[in-house]
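User: I want to check something. If I give you two sequences, will you return the structure for each one separately, not as a complex?

Assistant: Yes, each is folded on its own. Here is the first sequence with its structure:
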Amino acid sequence: MAEDIGNLGTIGSILRMSIVGRDIQLTQLHGLLTARDRGAGPIALVSGPAGVGKTALLHEFTQRAAKSGSLVLRAACSPRERANAWGVAHQLLWCTGRWKDASQRTSDILAAVGRSLAAITRAPEGERDKAMDEFCASVMKLADDHPLVLAVDDIHEADPESLGCLGHLARRMVASRVLAVFTDRPQALPPYAAARAEFGRQPGFHQLRVGPLTAGDIRLLLTDRLGVPADEADAAEFHAASGGSPLLTRALIEDTHNALQGMATATLRPVAGEVFDAAVVDCVHRVSAPAADLARHLAVLGPDALTVLLDRNSTDPPTRHLQELAQAGLLVGPGFRHPRMHTVLGGEVSAEERTRLHGRAAVLLHDNGAHPAAVAEHIVAAGGVAESWAIPLLREAAADALARDEFPKAMRLFDMAHAICPDGPLRASILFQRTLSAWQVDPAKAMRRLPELKEALQAGHLTAASGAMSLIKNLVWHGYVDEAADVLELVDDQLADDPVEEGVAEVRALQRWLSVLCPPFHRRMFGDVSPDVADEIAPAAIAAQPRLQAATALSVVLRGGEPGSAVVGAAHVLEMSSLTPTLETIPLALMTLFYADRTEQVDAWCTTLLEAARERNIPTWDALLSSLQAANLIRQGRLLEAERHSDLALSRMSSRSWGLSIGLPLASSVSALTAMGRYDEARARLGQPVPEALFQTLFGQHYLYARGQFHLATGRLQAALGDFLACGKALESWGVADTTLIAWRTGVAEARLLLGEPDLAATYLREELTRHKGRPRLHGNALRLLASTMEPRQRLRSLREAVDELQDSGCDLLLAHALGDLGHVYHLLGQSNRARVIVRRAYRMAKKCHAEPLSQNLLPDAERSADSRVCAAAHEASEQVHDVLSEAELRVAALAAEGHTNREIARRLFITVSTVEQHMTRILRKLNLSRRDELPQGLDTMGGSAAPAVSVARG
């Protein structure tokens, strides 16, 4: 009951609001009321679009007329009652028998009017005019006693018989005390058009137009209903959403009022809710039937609805119906004013009708030469169309969507083409395209279609050249090696019968990359046959078969071949490649550069390709490239960046989507977190489940090595040793142990050293040194570790050489380790000043790498508590020196601060002793110092890359 009372209050507030902005029309109607009293017999036609407030205006006027003493006869028309003959005429007289204040004379006249109307309905066609004359005479006699108002709402929907009767009456109203007020809608069709013309010919005819509310009117409504002042901007927003339609405006205001209930502050933004939805439906039911159909078609088909309605078989062009909907406040241009209108009206269309509309739209749009993308969307919405052109068009539209990186759309189109295609080979080809494209978005979801692809291959609908090899690669990606081997047997059988060149090349490419990335899988699928990697990596070959050449380049690098041509070939592959659904070509080329220690090239290519992947929003490429970037950053000692890239890579794809390649981003993440001292986070990464087949891949060896580093850092020495040895055993058995792939021997050596087994450690380190001459990162680090097995003076020479090599390696983290060891040796040899300078430099470098455990170990316990303060002071002093000294003076000052003599400085910098003396004089003067031993410690010339530490290698 309380809810009903609340609803009544809402309705009342809406009715009150609807009169706003209608003062001019009310004044005009009251003027006609006065004219009636003078016997003018006026006719007022209140005209306006659906929902503009004509009914409310008529109601307000008749209420006022009745209060002023007029007898008001009312009727309301409806299209549902149009077939009810004389229905409107009977409505006008229906309530007169209940007029309580009527005198006996008036009652008699009303009875006579009723009898005359009844006589009209019974009169034969030839006598009907006479009966109508008697009816009109009775009405005029009634008006002589009481001023009369005839009010008919939506007269354009009246039955033809009543319209004829009212037209007959209009011709006789001149000089009477009758005011006829009708409301209608523009563009009404016959038979009303004839009656309207009849009304318009009468001398007392007046037309009153009712238009939409202005922004000023809406501002008044907002202030009245919401109780807070509304400004012009607020009103403009409501006007834009409703088009000024009173019906839609008042509903929008009511929803906004309901939404603001209980809110501390009122924000006058339009809120469309249930009342607005009901008003939209009401508005559509008020317009003409063709306009209502057009509104529903637009909700389902969008602008393409116009094409359907403009079909050559259509006899009712939609132009005027568009205008009708726009005047009703529903449309602006060809689209809906408010997005909720689209949803509400779309819900009014049944599923069957939607399907029919979309199918018809697809055919008509295709016949009219529309773009395939537009036609394809309707085919999908219709669930397919039985047209021969549908499948090629869907494939063309899907390819177009892929070119624009609209992957979900492309998947929908491929799915529809596959669903309606009856042809086996074509159906398999579509499924292959769909699976390959889905791989770029979510490999795990793409895997769901692999059983269907396998069936197509068994049926002979797929070949090595048309998708079978991609199926094999996808199976391998997820560790299904046995299934991949079964598919390969089917491919081999096909190629034995028909050795297509493209198919043979695809098999060779598969053999190449399996041999280096997953050697056990290669043996399972190809036996012990090793691929020949001696092929020339020529530009012509790369252009013809980029995947094969990328795999060949990686094989050359990993199996110890000359890396020069492989690097050039990989770079050429990258230059001519783009982010296509074929995922292996670019990663193989990047891995070639990575394992050839071309870190700068890898950085540059990953950055460029990542920008493209993110701009195009391709998750799989983003993940793969971020993973390779992270591995490359680890080699450079850029730990924080490496962790961020590996974390991003892991977040862009699920574990299932990563398949066996998850080993690489996990390895990078664990290595970075371990070196930064974030052991709990590294442990959590290692707790993440990985496929069992991972350890039969190259990625699995990266994972083993990273896990060994974690065990080493957390004191689990035997576990670390086991991981390093397992990694080395796998790599040696695969024939890739001599490369810069993974420094497993140095891992074993570190574990042996911590276990107190220096002789065993030295064995591994000497082998590493022998294998990696000319590779500063691996050779320098092995030399650093080997130095720890020597006496201090021998150790000093080895560490100087190690520092020199690592200075050129591009890895600041390994250089920081070497500098720290070198400083420690200087301290043991009693050269504390030099030791302090070198350790400080190592500390700054470790801090720069975010290697917290190393940075803490580089400082004595007494200094750690004052760490920040000391480093800040040293940095400030260094900055002051940089500001006043030239680069040449800074190089001399840095060496002098370490205690080098003028002759030593001259030899290091390849200048004369006299030049050093001149520089020293200027340095002391500029820094306001009297002696060289007052120079600040830890000076460098490149913001952290100091010359003194480099120079000690050959002192």
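And separately, the second sequence with its own structure:
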Amino acid sequence: MSSSSNSGEFRIKGAGRHTPARTARFTFDGKSYTALEGDTVASALLAHGVHLLGRSFKYHRPRGILTSGPEEPNALLDVSRDAARRQPNVRATVQEVFDGAKIASQNRWPSLKYDIGAFNDMLSPFFAAGFYYKTFMWPREAWHKLYEPIIRRAAGLGEAPKEADPDHYASRYVHCDVLIAGAGVAGLTAALSAAATGSKVILVDEQPEVGGALHFDSSTVIDGQNGFDWAQAMAAKLKAMDNVTVLTRTTVFGYYNHGFLGLVERVTDHVALPGRDLPRERLWQVRAKKVVLATGSIERHMVFANNDRPGIMLASAARSFLNHHGVAVGRNVGVYTAHDSAYEAAFDMKRAGVSIAAIVDSRSHPGDGVLAEARALGIDVLTGHAVTDTSGRLRINSITVTRNGGANARKIKVDALLISAGWTPSVHLFSQSRGKLRFDEANQRFLPDIYAQNCISVGACNGTDDLADLIDEAIAAGGGAAVVSGENRFEWTGGMIGAAEGAGPDDAVKAFVDFQHDVTAKDIRLAVREGMHSIEHIKRFTTNGMASDQGKLSNMHGLAIASEILDRPIPQVGLTTFRAPYTPVTYGTLIAHSRGDLFDPARKTPMHALEAAEGAEFEDVGNWKRAWYFPKRGEDMHAAVNRECRTVREVGGVFDASTLGKIEVVGPDAAKFLNLLYTNAWDTLKPGKSRYGIMTREDGFIYDDGVVGRLAEDRFHVTTTTGGAPRVLQHMEDYLQTEFPHLNVWLTSTTEQWAVIAVQGPKAREIIAPFIEGLDISNEAFPHMSVAECTIMGVPGRLFRMSFTGELGFEVNVPADFGAAVWKAIWERAQTMGACLYGTETMHVLRAEKGYIIVGQDTDGTVTPDDSGYGWAVSKKKTDFVGIRGLKRPDLVREGRKQLVGLFTKDPKDVLEEGAQIVADPNQAKPMTMLGHVTSSYWSETLGRSIAIALVAGGRAKMGSTLYVPMADRTISVEVTDMVFFDKEGGRING
């Protein structure tokens, strides 16, 4: 075995696909190493003979590299560029080496070789599965002082960085016709087929190069070429097509409803000096018409005594390190298998000059082809035998081999052991799509069965083992035409799940099922004896499959062991839930730009800059910056608001109402839909008219309110409260999709599409008249609560005749891009007529004077329409709407409920505090009986006194009575009144 020593003494000259001249220097636990560009951290360390990479979570047992892919449970490392650019729990088998990388092991102290935590291994009888449910209970006082601090210090793997993340992350939204997850033979073939139809195709693979299993499989020939070379040629062909996007280093981590998938692309994690303009990672949010799952399968380990020592790894991993990276995992290698695929690893190594100590096969009859090849290569094959133990402290140095059912054992010296129990189809994304699986009894595996979305599984993840069948299946899935032919040298047979010989119910050995959480076969059996008969309960009792690898290696073994001891078929034991993400995703990727100032971004209306130039003070309303009041020189807030209130009542005012939520409800069944969502009727509303509506929850309590205008038979313009816009749209979508899917309706948020300028006051019509084109806005032609589409200053707009002040009012809606220009023109004309700009505080005072409520301020989630005095808005004729049954509950119609009423303080100058409690007897002994609280309170310049709105128990029955508001320094007497304080007849609104 010849090697190139600079990049490691286990690097085989002429093997692998990396260029020896391209090197990278990195450190592992402070020691410097040389790697080749394209190496993973795992392959680079193996090239230098480093197998010990970490310690297990619970027992702190020495652990090495088990796999060569994202399912790696052991080799989790800390990777950094500097103190701020550091990430824990990075899989050594995925992270590519870059020049200057600083790699460190985790979960050990004081060093990886000498870890004091290994003492736990000697105490393992006390740490059996579920021990945490039965311990740390006595003495009770010790929990906070002793147990909890120790557990918190021991919890977790790795140390989270404390510095702010200096990297940036990107996010993209994409639509495509076909998304293909996995770029092995099946995925590439499906992509070629789909691309031929002209469809927009996205092909995704998590590895740096396409090829999937062809990275390690040296015996596959496709179209007369080596399989891996064919894959690269096909990738180049696909990349040259305008309708195809090929994404490597990209993982499909989540498959959600309606063809929505989450992808994470590792953009610069492998680059030594990434450009400052490049993101570290990119989140792709893809909506696909069709999804082709070509996710392959995952090799299983053998479950036997001490199967976790460094140097023991999956056979496919060793092949990948050899054939792709040019690294031999040892010089004298053993193989333990129940499947033919491991033989090919032995063949490749033998031909590369590595000594094969023996192939130990638990089966009596392996495949004839691989058995003949092994003999031809002079490899010793022990059929019907088992590896029943291993030895070696920090790396395996020998295996104990016993004939199945026999007693005589012999030791075989090895420095690495390759294992394979067969292959498990990767059905994670299929299951995330809500597809249902079936159990293939003959091959002991779960396969896709019932599809819930427009997707199809092809290749190994679908249980298609024959290469010709796989290619045909992939071409059909792509929907087009492609000419691909291939052959494998050997036809694989075999496989097993569960514990192997020597790790049965009567064997007191540590045979690991879940490596990261130190779950053994005897832990699974203990869980069953403790009464856990569902696999979900067994999972939680033992933590099998709950580590960062999510049981990709352990789930099937755990199922089989539980099935055996329960004496039930595997399908009856159940299957754990496959949840997103498929592999860990960084917070930075998920958050992308949503941090710092953009974490909760401030939203500004199109008129914000103009309002600021006019001296506006702003307040935060949800995410919006809203003009609060417009002080003139020498005015405080109270003086400014008083002036604004007087001016609006006497002349007019201009108000920015753009923040109101706006939803377009369109479709033949739009009126039916609104009838079901609101308490009042909408089928009787004629086009060109609008109506105030109340929306309740199922329990009958007010959820939101707003004015709804009918523009046409099938189109409504719905307004919501400023803070309620997102949840109201979600509420509507929820009911449309789940309760009323039969209705032909489309919902679109238009909040930011329309700039809204409210012009209120006696001269409102005169102010806007010159700007309205082609519409008669006289009182007779355009009465209160009218709506029309028209032209406003040359741009298409919508004009509402409505008021939240009780004055003559209009709301001018124009496209947001024209909002500032229209606002400026209206304001210039309003100034000449003596009108003013006014803000939200004045709006609150004016609406309170008229008794108009604000949902969320005057309501608290327990207020019904009748409680608020708006019972008239609940239709008596409708037989159904959301909340109709809730409103009929006895508690919601009983006497004495809290109701909204008005309050006058006995001293007109006293302005109550909002939230202040109300009592009937201020001298009552504590605890006093609270009747309710003040919801809104203002000084009314119009009335020359204070006004308030309050929720009071049995409020309407207490009209004219005196109640009390206890404050810290005094008690304020109040008189209960109705809520309309100004213009009780309502004549001004029709001016």
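Because they were folded independently, the notes below concern the second chain alone. The longest helix spans residues 637-650. The mean pLDDT is 95.
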